[in-house]
TrEMBL record:
Name this polypeptide is given: 3-oxoacyl-acyl-carrier-protein reductase FabG
Keywords attached to this entry: Oxidoreductase
Top-level taxonomic group: Bacteria
Family of this protein: Belongs to the short-chain dehydrogenases/reductases (SDR) family.
EC number(s) on file: 1.1.1.100
Gene designation: fabG_3
GO molecular function: 3-oxoacyl-[acyl-carrier-protein] reductase (NADPH) activity
Species of the source: Tepidimonas charontis
Lineage, opening ranks: Bacteria, Pseudomonadati, Pseudomonadota, Betaproteobacteria, Burkholderiales
Pfam families the UniProt entry points to: adh_short_C2
Length: 261
């Protein structure tokens, strides 16, 4: 066990090579955490995130990359043990990686739902289960936290991205159920961003216009979502609840998903 590292808390961030996962990883590294950077295909991006996290936490060995396919149960079950072998401890899991593929009621298939549920829901539950088992095995009482990235559209539903939305709804329910089941060792908290980053479905002008559609005149930024995750990680009174970080977009009614508007 690498005892030189074990004095520092360690967080596993899934999908940390790019986008929100990267921002979350950098924010927690800046707060002093060791960061396990998970990726599936984006090896080069993950290596860059790890290098940036090492600089942010001030330790050359404070970050490392770990590859796993979240669709595959065996691969998911091997992920946290690999992080433990490297860092000697895991204190938090941030389930940021997410499958986001279009379907609707007319084009729904078992395969599409199964793929989303595996990546977005089942993997998060397995990692929470493993974190709890690891912490319960410690001789000294030690608390951990799981943060699940959700979506404001759960509170403002529309029929687009049906399988994705169902998988996130299941993860929101799992946040409550796991908070009950894993207490007091592990807290489980949701963070639900609004429109935060553009996608292949939106032009830059469309993104800018849609980002302004909220009661506050702006939705969330990556930095604000990462800050909410950091708050959920450090606030020991939070469990079984979700922080909506969206400029109030969940208070408005949208007939279509942002990418379809």
């Amino acid at each position: 066990m690498p005892s030189a590292l074990s004095e520092f808390p360690t967080v596993l961030v899934t999908g940390a090579g790019k986008r929100l996962g990267r921002e979350i990883a950098l924010t927690l590294a800046g707060a002093g955490w060791n960061v396990a950077v998970h990726y599936r295909h984006s090896a080069a991006d993950a290596q860059q995130t790890a290098a940036d996290c090492a600089r942010a936490c001030g330790r050359a060995d404070g970050a490392a990359t770990f590859c796993a396919d979240l669709d595959d149960e065996a691969s998911v079950r091997a992920l946290l043990p690999a992080v433990l072998r490297h860092f000697g401890r895991v204190d938090a899991v941030i389930n940021s990686a997410s499958r986001f593929e279009y379907d609707d009621a007319a084009h729904f298939t078992y395969a599409q739902l199964d793929a989303h549920m595996r990546s977005n829901t089942a993997a998060a539950i397995v990692l929470a289960q493993q974190l709890h088992a690891h912490l319960c095995a410690q001789r000294v009482a030690h608390l951990g936290v799981v943060v699940n990235l959700l979506d404001q559209k759960l509170w403002n539903p529309n029929p687009d991205f049906l399988s994705y939305t169902l998988s996130k709804a299941a993860l929101e329910a799992a946040t409550t159920l796991l908070a009950q089941a894993l207490a007091p060792r592990v807290r489980v908290v949701g963070v639900a961003p609004g429109l935060t980053l553009t996608s292949p479905y939106l032009s830059a002008d469309q993104f800018a216009a849609l980002h302004r559609q909220s009661p506050l005149g702006r939705s969330s930024t990556p930095e604000e979502v990462a800050d909410a995750v950091a708050f959920a990680v450090r606030n020991r009174a939070l469990t079984g609840t979700t922080l909506l970080v969206d400029g109030g977009q969940h208070l408005m009614r949208f007939e279509r998903d942002f990418s379809m508007m």
